[in-house]
Structures are given as C-alpha cells and as structure tokens.
Amino acid sequence: MTIYANPGTDGSKVTFKPRYEHFIGGEWVAPVKGQYFENPTPITGQTFTEVGRGTPEDIEAALDAAHAAAPAWGRTSPAERAVILNKIADRMEANLEMLAVAETWDNGKAVRETLNADIPLAIDHFRYFAGTIRAQEGSLSQIDEDTVAYHYHEPLGVVGQIIPWNFPILMAVWKLAPALAAGNAVVLKPAEQTPASILVLAELIGDLLPGGVLNIVNGFGLEAGKPLASNKRIRKIAFTGETTTGRLIMQYASENLIPVTLELGGKSPNIFFEDVMASDDSYWDKAQEGFTLFALNQGEVCTCPSRSLVQESIADSFLDAVVERARAIVQGNPLDTDTQMGAQASNDQLEKIKSYLDIGRQEGAEVLLGGEQAHLDGDLAGGYYVQPTIFRGNNSMRVFQEEIFGPVVSVATFKDFDDAMTIANDTLYGLGAGVWSRNGNTAYRAGRAIQAGRVWVNNYHAYPAHAAFGGYKSSGIGRENHKMMLDHYQQTKNLLVSY
Length: 499
Ligand code: NAD
What we know:
Strand content: 15-25%
Number of helices: 14
Radius of gyration: 23 Å
Structural class: alpha/beta
Largest sheet: 7 strands, mixed
Bound molecules: nicotinamide-adenine-dinucleotide
C-alpha cells in the first residue's frame, strides 16, 4: 500500500503552479481579458490552483499560432513526427507517477487507475500512432497506358478539439496523438472542471513540439468551446462530451461545412446469460468482477455498464453474489493505492447523481446496495463521494434510460436471448455493451445483435489503442483509436497524371 502525499505538501510527486495561463505558440500566455477561474480538487473540495478563463480573443490567438505552425509541421515526414511522438511517450513514462498523481488530484479518481490504466494507455497511444503513421502508405492506380492516379495523405491543417472531465489526460491524448501524427496543428479546450492535469502534461512535453503545433485554451463551454467549434479557421472539430452538447457542435460545424467526430453519452447494457454461474471457477469470478465495473472511475465512464441484464433463471443467486462483491469495493482516499473508488469529479456531478438516487427510489426501483452520498472522514469530509449503488427495476425507468454518470447500476432480468437483445437495444444510445456467456455461439450472436460500436465479450472496459471505439445512434459519429483514426485527420489528395 502506498499513500501519495497531497500536492503542495512534503514529499508530493507533483507541484501545481498557483495559477495557469493558456498554452499558446509554445508559451504560457495570460488570458486577453485577464480573468481566471478556480480549480478545486474533488478529493477535499479545496481550490488548489486557478486557471485562465478563455474567451473568443484567446481562441483567435491560439488559432493564429496554430496557423503559423501548421504548414511547416504538415511538411515534416511521418518518420520525423513519429520520433517526436515517441519522445513524448518516453517523457511521460519517465514521469508516470507525477502524471498519475496530478490526474488523481484534479479529477478525484483512484490513483491505482491513473497509475495502471489512464497514463499507461495515454503513453501507448502516442507510441501506437507513431508506429501507425510510419506504416501508412499511399497508393497508385494505373488508369490506362498513359495515365496514373496517385493518392497521397495530407493533413487537414488546423483542427479543434474539445474534451470532457472524466479522463482528462487520456481523452486529450486520444485526440492529440492521431491529429499530431497526421501532421495537424491543434487547438484543444479541456473541460473547465479538470484543466490542471492537462496543463501539467503541457509543461512536461510542450518543448518537444514546434511552438504552435499544440495550443491549449482553457475555459467554459460557451465562452471558449463555442468560439472554437464554430470558428471558420478550423478544418475539423473533434468533440467528446454529452449528447446534447454534441448536437450543438454539429450545428456549428454545419455552418462551416467541416467534419466532426462526436464521442457522446451511453447507457451500456452488460448482459449475463444463465451459464455464467458456477460454484467456484475463474470464469464466474471474472464475470462477477465484470459486473462491479459499473463503479470503475466512480461510474464516470461513457461506457459505464450502467444497465445490467441478468437471465431470470439465475437472477436471485446471481444478485446475491454480485451485491456482496460490490459491497467489498474499497472507497477512500483516491491517493491511496488500495482505494478502488475515489471521488466524483465535481460538486455538480455529485448533486446530479444524488438527484438520480432520489429518482430511482421515487419510480420504485429496489435499492440492493448503497443509494446515498458517502461521507468520508478528516480531510476527505469536503470531497464528493457516492456509495456504489445497485438498483433493481425495469428498463422503462429513468435510471435505466438516462445517463447518470455515477457509480450506479440498474439491474433488470430477461427471459431468453431475444428478450435480452430487445431490452439491450431499447435505448437512445449505442456506445458500449458487455456479453457474458460460456457458450461461444450465444456470445457471438449477442455481440452482433447489439447496436453498439464496442461490445466486450467475456471482458469489459479494456481500451487497447488498436481497437476502434465509437458510438451507434445518439452515442456519436466517427471512431477513435485504431489506425482508421488517421482518416479522420487527413485529406486524400489525388494526382491524375498523364505521361
Ligand atoms: P459536456 O458536453 O458538458 O462538456 C464537454 C466539453 O464541451 C467541455 O469541455 C465543455 O466546456 C464543452 N462545451 C460545453 N458546451 C459547449 C458548447 N456549447 N460549445 C462548445 N463546447 C462546449 O460533457 P461533460 O459533462 O464534460 O462530459 C460527460 C459526457 O461525456 C458524458 O455524456 C459522457 O458519456 C461523455 N463521454 C463520452 C466519451 C466517448 O468516448 N463517447 C468519453 C468520455 C465521456
């Protein structure tokens, strides 16, 4: 067990500056209007730094820098860009604990996750796209005896990226790695709830990129996000966040006729067929663990398995077992490596989750576990904590249909395969899903029948860089991860040449 020291105290792995400006053109630049906003840690509720509050003027300054840098960066070879991306990955790896503690302090998530998943996955994304861009090839088609079609990949130029607060560094890197590998200059707007860890990352790696290739403007959605997403000087907008915001982003983009990537909300079903149970074996153990992943990252995951569907024939004994498993989830100081569940990312999010706990009870869902705010002691008393919560009800309830984004799972039962598929697909969303069955045929058919971009079969919540990720239905447009992502950040140039 390790308990990392709080930033700002003796022995801490990370020191935050008392104030952060925007990162523009490779420099720290004060906001044009001179305003800053406070950034509290969800762990204690105390403000630990303040951050520049971006306005349209700051977005314009960042776009000036990006446009100045984009032509030369776009002309670098894939091999040159790959060297830089690998250096970024190496530097992150050498500072893994520092980044992990920064991310935990800013977001409230358990440090065991940031150490073992968030930051290592971010590092691997840079390495993956460094390799992928080098392996990318153009093509040549012979049209007739005298004419040849050459196809080249060209960067889009300057792109905008807007991200949420649930995985600040990882969400930034999911977008930055392919965009930079493809030769684009970027203006990124982090979420206003969690700007600091990304700024620590910019301090760490900023000097490895030519000035202006990476620009970060902080601030709120309407003040900084909209001026970026609706700007005529970007050639693409990539967005991760709520479905309602995604609709607005698409409207802005339609004015400028630019492509969008939208990674939006979810209400993912996690389906357990009757053959999962056994008195004692490793598959059953893994399936129970798969159920408890609704509490991973405090449930603040777009693919949170927030609807569990259990076959009727095993429902009671299945639920007895998984409720006990979920009761054992260790909640506590996020900086303690033994902690499995930390703090919700903001007070607003805490309040939203609490309102859904009330809604679930009011609409008659049975509370099998939790159902309340969690009150921790000492320094943590002011932090934002919720008990892992299991509701049992039916799929028409709001707690089954609406994204809560907290450690809350709503459980319903199904009769047979067709019934399971009907309930699973009875949702606006189509982002993630889980299927658990020892029968390969059942698992395969379910995986194909569920309308979701990612179906985990006999596992859940793995995010390898080379597996495509994205939504069906109201969960989004486009994909992230996988080499196909490069197509989202490049144009194809065709030269049709007669000799
Ligand atoms: P949000 O939509 O409120 O905010 C996301 C970002 O958009 C923030 O940076 C915010 O400042 C900005 N923004 C808000 N209004 C804007 C506007 N009008 N114009 C431009 N920018 C604007 O979402 P959130 O609450 O930060 O994040 C949680 C949501 O993100 C959940 O719905 C979750 O499912 C989703 N999410 C999806 C994925 C995925 O890959 N599909 C991953 C993580 C999170």
